[in-house]
Amino acid sequence: MAVYSMTGYASTLATAPAAARSGSASQPGAGAALAVELRSVNGRFLDLVLKLPEELRGLEPALRELLAASFRRGKIEMRMATQREADGAWPDPTPEQLNRLARTESTVLGWLPLARPLSVNEIMNWCRSGGTVERLDEPAMDAARRCIEALREARAREGAKLATTLTDRTARLRELAARAEPLVPAVVKRQQERFLERWNEALDAVGAGSNLPAEASQERALNEATALAIRIDVAEELSRLRSHVDEIDRLLKAGGELGKRLDFLIQELLREANTLGSKSAALELTGISVEMKVLIEQMREQVQNLE
To answer: Which of 10, 111, 163, 203 has the fewest CB atoms within 10 Å of its CB?
Structure first.
């Protein structure tokens, strides 16, 4: 299954033949042009914004249903625009349209005798726009379906690039964890030895070395050194970090809707990297922790764009 980004763009065009509109006798192909655009950016939830011409307002519920069935997250804006009579040709008025206009004009003049009669231009404009809503529904829905499919393909292409970028980052995190792992025992041992040296120096400085039995003093020192080793040992953090990285790679390979799950795993990765840095007792481990956090922040930015 593909990995989908929440960022993408698609557009389609459709034409409603004039011969199929309102019983017009215009030449086929001189119909109304319809343009559909879809723009998608990242968002926490699915946010749909539809900007439709007045004659297509009735399609909004059906269009929202189509979009909700195809996408799960992201702010998606759909724009539809119509252009009547491509090439600017005038329509051929039908007798029905002219009779209706004549009756309407007669009624208006009966009540308002000073009203100005309709001009030829006004009559032709009314005949151009009248009675076309129903005829545009089918081509508009077809264009919307094609545009939605094109947007899904665009989001899939972008998602594949994001997945490759994330996989590169997880590979780098594994390398850093592999570098850190052999350093841990040596760092722990070095810190234990340093602690014991300071312990003995402190006892000698206060003159307590002669007041305490040597065995008791040594046992207490070893207990404190062991507690210190537990506090600075980061082997568990490295193990959890590798586990999270493996899960991220598994999700990217499986594909589908994984943005929220990856976002949670990124938070866990950052927590382990922060703990590694705070428990670090050596400059080498601190440097590795900083590199890890840089990579994880880069991953977080990419994950924000995944569906």
So the answer is: 111
Q: Give the global pTM.
A: 0.66
| pLDDT tens, residue by residue, 74-119 | 999 999 988 754 445 566 778 888 888 888 888 888 888 888 888 8
Indicate the angle between helix axes 133-180 and 60-70, nearest 10 degrees: 20
Q: Radius of gyration (Cα) for the chain, nearest Å? A: 36
How confident is the model over 214-264, as pLDDT tens digits? 555 555 555 555 555 555 567 778 888 889 999 999 999 998 888 889 999
Fold held by 159-303:
Butyryl-CoA Dehydrogenase, subunit A; domain 3 (1.20.140)
* % helix, strand, coil for the chain, step of 5: 65, 15, 20
For residue 278, how many C-alpha atoms fall within 13 Å in the half-sphere facing its CB? 8
Given this structure, which CATH class describes domain 8-90+128-158? alpha beta
